[in-house]
């Protein structure tokens, strides 16, 4: 099957640091790919390059064979990308539901000011409720975000990404900071979303959950490609074990 998203020959430099060196990867329609590697391997930089937040020294990034490398982030969102962040950043003065409605409205008008004016429309409300139900936090819809614990905020982050109706969901450490029970339950939710057809690329350090829910792993180490393939097979590779555990 053809790749829905590909990144070829990605090199990113921050001053004197080469964060990514000639990295290439692709994800197929409906696939659940986890991007793993030790701290500083370049995982977040790769996702930020794909979404246009980081400017590469070299890269060719395509969605469905369409070159997007020179497009601004909002155009890439329109073409189907959504990225959740490791550090959640909801609008604290809004309720849980309003945050998702705002995201749903932003996809339509692509302007924060207009989105604020637009966001009380009933179609956005209906959509937003469906996404809150999908991530199991509909019961918190009218609570101010500022009163919600991290476990709810991590789920809200996923709902906000779904609200822009992406073709490809990019998740940056969705399980970080959660206890093992919360992590396992959110991993189940993310897996279900992927099984319903969402192409998913996830950065995650929680290897037991990664192994449990991913179709394929892609491993980076020190800015370079290290391995990819079946999760259990990849984790058996000596160079992957060395990257994680040291020699
Ligand atoms: N904005 C930036 N300015 C300067 N250096 C940066 C910037 N962003 C990332 N780096 C550096 O690039 C390298 C890769 O960082 P990146 O955050 O992509 O790694 P990561 O694999 O996501 O790590 P972690 O698992 O710890 O989040 C690191 O050396 C980091 O310090």
From TrEMBL:
Annotated SUPFAM superfamilies: P-loop containing nucleoside triphosphate hydrolases (SSF52540)
Single GO cellular component term: plasma membrane
GO molecular function, one term: ATP hydrolysis activity
Top-rank taxon: Bacteria
Any matching Pfam family: ABC_tran
CDD domains to which the protein is assigned, alphabetical: ABC_Mj1267_LivG_branched
Domain ABC transporter: 5-247
Annotated signal peptide: none
Keyword ATP-binding: yes
Entry keywords, A to Z: ATP-binding, Nucleotide-binding, Transport
Membrane-spanning parts: none
Protein name (Swiss-Prot/TrEMBL): Amino acid/amide ABC transporter ATP-binding protein 1, HAAT family (TC 3.A.1.4.-)
Species the sequence originates in: Desulforhopalus singaporensis
Lineage of producing organism: Bacteria, Pseudomonadati, Thermodesulfobacteriota, Desulfobulbia, Desulfobulbales
